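Protocol step 4 of 6: structure prediction from sequence.
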Amino acid sequence: SLPGDIGELENLEYLDVRKNHLRDLPQQLMMCSNLRVVAIDSNMFRELPDVLQDIESIREVFAVSNTEMR
């Protein structure tokens, strides 16, 4: 999993966590107010993480090949 202090990266614009066997993302990611692109391909998400829907700055999410996504 990603560390909770990822929220301290206020200037983060692109997050690429492909192929990491992740099942969730930390709520602290909401603090990354400049985040524009997120790549969560090839993980183990069942659905798009709620935290991504709460970040208004996000413009693109790549989420293909998640083994458990519906």
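Step 5 (inspection) to follow. Strands lie at 14-16, 37-39, 60-62.
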